[in-house]
Amino acid sequence: MSLRLSTVILPHRRWSEGGRSAWTRAEQLGFHTAYTYDHLSWRSFRDGPWFGAVPTLTAAAGVTERLRLGTLVTSPNFRHPVTLAKELISLDDISGGRITLGIGAGGTGFDATALGQEPWSPRERADRFAEFVPLLDRLLTEDAVSYEGRFYSAVEARNIPGCVQRPRLPFAVAATGPRGLRLAARHGQAWVTTGDPKLYETGTPEQSVEALRGQLGKLSEVCAAVGRDVAELDKILLTGFTPDRGTPLQSLDAFVDFAGRHRDLGFTEIVIHWPIPDSDFAAEEKVFEQIAMEGLAQLG
C-alpha cells in the first residue's frame, strides 16, 4: 500500500518573517499536503503570535502551485457552516482546487470559550458536529440551501459557482467515537486520528499501535454498516500525539521504522509537524528535510 507524507505548519509566524518561506519550502520538499491548525489560539502558543487559518491558506495558495493545502482541523467551536462554506468555496477557487477540509468536533481549549459561551459538553459537541457536517456538505454541493436545525440554520444560502473540485472539496473527518466515525463513513473522503490520547503520557508505542489498530477496525465496521467500502477512505495519522512523540523526527531511520509500522496498519498518509524550536515540535531542520525527501523512498 502506498503512503503519502504531509506536514502541518502552525500559523505562528508573520508572513514576512518565515511564514511564506515555510509554505514554499514545503512544496519544494515534495510534501503531498501542507495543513495548518484552525484555532483562535492554541495551548502554549496562546500568548504569542497566531494567525487565522483561512487567510494563511489563501496566501499559501498564492505562492504554491502543486502542493495540496488544508486544515487539521476546523471545528464548530467558532465556525458556522454558512460562512465557512463561502470561505471554502473561495479558497478552493483561489487555489485551483487544492484544498482539503480537515474537520473535527472540537475540544475544550481556548476556542471553546473565546466567543463568550460556556464550554460545550462532549455530548453537545457530538450533537453539533452531527448537524454541522451534513449541512456543510449540502452548502458545498448545492447552489441554494435552506435548513432549520437545532443548532444551525440556513435561509436560501447561495454558493454559486460551487467548488472547483467536484462535487465538492474533500472532507478529512477527525473522529474516534462511534458518532464521529459514522460521519466519516457517510461524508468523508478521509479519516483522521492522532491516536489514543489516554496513552500519550504513560503508554508505549506498542500500545499505541494496538489502539490505532482498534480504531481502524471500528472504522471498517462503521463503513460496512452504512454500505461504504472502507478502502475508499484515506486514513491520515497526525503525528506528535502518540507515546512516540518526537521520536520519529530524530533520524531518518526512526521515521522509516515509525512510518512502516503505521503503513502496515493501513494508514495512507502520515503528517509531521514543521519544526518549531523550543516547543513540543522541536526537530533538527536538516533531519526533517532529509525525511521529507528520502523517507518514503526508504520504505520501499
Explain this structure.
- This protein has 300 residues and is an alpha/beta fold.
- Helix content is 39%, strand content 17%.
- It has helices at 19-29, 53-63, 81-95, 122-141, 178-187, 205-225, 252-265, 285-299, and strands at 4-8, 33-36, 68-74, 99-103, 144-148, 153-158, 171-174, 190-193, 234-238, 269-273.
- The strands form two sheets. It has an eight-stranded parallel barrel with strand order 1-2-3-4-7-8-9-10, surrounded by five helices. Strands 5-6 form a two-stranded antiparallel ribbon.
- Strand 2, helix 2 (53-63) and strand 3 (68-74) form a beta-alpha-beta unit.
- It is globular, with a radius of gyration of 19 Å.
- The protein starts with a strand and ends with a helix.
- The mean pLDDT is 97.
Radius of gyration: 19 Å
Order of helices and strands: EHEHEHEHEEEHEHEHEH
| Secondary structural class | alpha/beta
Count of helical stretches: 8
The span between the termini is: 10 Å
Main sheet: strands, sense, barrel: 8 strands, parallel, barrel
